[in-house]
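[Meeting: bench + compute handoff]

Bench side (C.D.) handed over the final construct sequence. Compute side (W.E.) agreed to return the predicted structure before the next meeting so the bench team could plan truncations. Sequence as handed over:
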Amino acid sequence: MPAVSNVLIIGGGTAGSALAILLARAGVAVDLAEIKPELTTLGSGITLQGNALRVLRDLGVWDRVSAAGFAFDSLGLRAPGGRLIAEIPDARTGGPGLPATIGMNRPELAAILAGAVRRAGARIRFGLTADALTDTGDGVRVRLSDGTEAGYDLVVGADGIRSATRGLLGIDLAPEPTGMGIWRIHTRRPKEVERTDLIYGGPCFIAGYCPTGPDTMYAYLVEKARPRDAAGDKVAHMRALTEGYGGVWNGISAAITDPDHINYTWFESLLVDRPWNRGRTVLIGDAAHACPPTLAQGAAQCLEDAAVLAELLLTADRLDQTLFDAFMDRRHGRVKAVVEASLQLARWQLDQTPDADVPGLMGRIAAMVTERP
């Protein structure tokens, strides 16, 4: 018997959806409360490393993800003018049966996961969140934002980097900016773009792109953070940044015409100290940890949280602090290493560190995440 019979998951993003799938298909009654009126996602594209793909395969959605995305097994490094400097085989962190990386459109991943949540039998409740949590020792009494109340064996806060659940638990922690901002655009993919290529230097710290499908890709430019409300003419600014780059970037620049298709965000980080639970409410995913996308491990770590927590809940006889401690033993150190490495890469860029061992750091993280958590 699972350690829980009914669970409330707050937040329908990657971590929350993955946990809902794993628990519901094992017979646990799952309510997934999503504050938005429908499951949508911001941003343009997403890069999924092999260890993320491993969990998506376990969720039973690998075929759909593979069909919707674009797989590749190497990373290109280019000079600002477009010349190829190096082609590096990428680590297959999900194992030999999966590609090293898949790029895909974020809304497509959200739709795939939402479909799997429904097929697993979980109930998605849109436009709803938790306003108050009362731990009763053997459960959690929840006052929901529609005024109703309900009781659950477990509540999981998977409501993102600005988690309201974190505040309800009395955890006073906010995401910290790293000093970098990223401009993203989703656009058409030229045939020659068949993997991620990165440029370090030029007008930006990083200029890169990633294929997301048969004829789509997303491109991004990382510079020093500017005030969120002072981005100004987004089209003109992003196009000006591309002028320092050649090759594929000439076509990308020409496609930057609609400000509504441009996404600008800051790089931020956050790591909740262990334990991530207060009684029978626990945080997972970006509610517990977040990092700049310098290692493209954000979604992977969210998916791993869900996989490990589901495994423990479905194999334990009871829910107590021992289970949460086991969850922390398997997750906290691994997540901390990813967050710290992602921040180190950002600091090296900000400080223009000449002897930064970027390949060494990336290799150490790749070796770690290749092992199952």
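W.E. noted at the follow-up: The chain has a mean pLDDT of 94. C.D. will use this when planning the next construct.
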